[in-house]
Here is the input.
Amino acid sequence: MAIAMNVESKLGLDAFKLDEESHIHIKQGICKRDCKEKYCLFVCPAHLYSVNKESGDICVEFEGCLECGTCRIACRYGALEWEYPRGGFGVQFRFG
Ligand code: SF4
Ligand code: SF4
Here is the structure.
């Protein structure tokens, strides 16, 4: 009998080969100066974006990136420099 899995359970099956170097760079000046909406905090399916409470900087836990590209499209101010992780690094989908 098949067992139903929710999205979170399926994402938990993915494996990540971690790189020390982030493939996502955030231009903090644009975030602070121009962006009230902060879409990046809401659109990431893996919930990787957050605000540093002390500095106010936007942070991204790039190690868990699913490489969907949603944040890059959602950021209407061009504050994100986004590339695929270097060869061999990043997410390895299972059941995908
Ligand atoms: S949506 Fe873009 S400009 Fe706005 S906070 Fe996020 S990264 Fe910065
Ligand atoms: S590419 Fe997708 S998973 Fe990766 S940080 Fe952006 S929205 Fe999140």
